[in-house]
Amino acid sequence: MDHHQATADSKLQAIRWDRPRLSILNQLLLPHASEYVDIRTSADGHHAIVSMQTRGAPAIAIVAALSLAAEISQQDFESAQQARDFIVDRLDYLATSRPTAVNLFDAVTKLKAVAASALECQSPAATGASVALAYVDAAEQMLAADVHDNRAIGGHGAQYIAGRALEQGIGAFKLLTHCNTGALATAGHGTALGIIRSLHQGAAARDPSGAVLDHVYFGETRPYNQGARLTAYELLCEDIPSTLVCDSAVSALLRRDPTIVAVVVGADRVAANGDTANKIGTYQLAIAAKYHGRDFIVAAPSTSIDLGLASGEGIAIEERDPREITRAEGFVLGGLEDGRMERETLCVAPRDARAWNPSFDVTPAELVSAIVTEKGVFVKNPGATTYDLAKCLGEN
Ligand code: MRU
Predict the structure, then answer these.
(1) Best substitution site from 52, 151, 179 to test ligand 1's pocket, by max atoms within 8 Å of Cβ?
(2) Which of 59, 175, 257, 376 lies in the 20 to 30 Å Cα band around 139?
(3) Phi, psi at residue 355, to the nearest 5°?
(4) Which atom of ligand 1 is nearest to the CA of 179?
(5) Does Isomerase count among this protein's keywords (predicted)?
């Protein structure tokens, strides 16, 4: 599989896989330095996820899967059973890295099943090498499938949003997004940012009577600044006209500019009824969109949908170190003499200030106008306040 070709439509590549070598773009250094880190083992993968060198729901799952692929590609197993036990043990360990994005748990479940079936179906001929190979093939397929699904999300979402703009008589429309959901958060192209990328890429070919994406606004996404650091960088790389705003400016922005037809965000976990966990700040954006009469659109692959959860109440919300709020991380302007930028931590609150730092929130389905997956665009039935995603996905 040629992964470089698979992600050719994004200039940025968060995950580089060249069997058996895995490296990831260290997102802690962006936008000031573009450095790749080698990931040789599941322990390296776990560290990359916990330390946020890599982040974003689909990317977390794929880095976890491939980190173990890298590890077992270099390893000899005495038996098929030993290989399978090792894989299950390391997948359980990788599942402890971050709690909210369901893609990780979905990948862990699927990959355990691959290892079990390689052991059982090939029995008695199964060997440690054959079980390991089945695992590596499956992890690679997840990488390729994510890019493929994101392009499909991009196409469906672009068509839907352009159609909604035309219905409102807005020929040149704007969008507002949150956090980072692009090539950096996925295997390539992105989800919500993938729709924006697809709209931008399609603009040249669009029929003159169609609606076009004119501008993208995005929030800084405190405290980790995925918007200010990562989305700003991606949009600049792609030459997509864009403006950064404070998280607290979004309501004022929506009131001021009626050509912002929709707020488009990604998801870490969508419950069966459409309740959506995503980066902290998403819920208040949905409320602001509702008040101002704009669409609030969630874009996510079906691997982000947790049909095992009836509603968002059961979603585990990661709470991070309060010091992410009481301090600010940045790079010293002007840099060091050799051109490198120096990373610095500043105190922005009194030393003894208490802080609460949930990394995600849950937006009730009632506020979600549409959910875009690789399978299409889902909207609620007339009069309904929730979705039946099992039905939408053809699972019942
Ligand atoms: O804490 P992060 O940066 O991993 O959070 C990322 C988000 O909340 C994204 O919106 C979500 O994972 C979707 S990424 C396609």
Answers:
(1) 179
(2) 376
(3) -145, 145
(4) 10
(5) yes
Helix axes 57-73, 128-167, angle to 10 degrees: 160
* Close Cβ partners of 346 (under 8 Å, ≥ 6 residues apart): 327, 328, 329, 330
Q: Is 101 in the pocket of ligand 1 (CB under 6 A)?
A: yes
The structure's pTM equals: 0.95
Domains located in the chain, CATH noted: 15-146 (1.20.120.420), 153-320+357-392 (3.40.50.10470), 321-356 (no CATH)
Q: For 144-181, what is each residue's pLDDT tens digit?
A: 999 999 999 999 999 999 999 999 999 999 999 999 99
Residue 71, ligand 1, Cβ within 6 A: no
**ipTM at complex level:** 0.99
Instruction: Supply the Cα-derived Rg of the chain in whole angstroms.
Output: 21
What sign does the dihedral 106-109-115-119 (CA atoms) show?
negative
Q: Is the CB of 58 under 6 A from ligand 1?
A: yes
Give the pLDDT mean for 208-216.
88
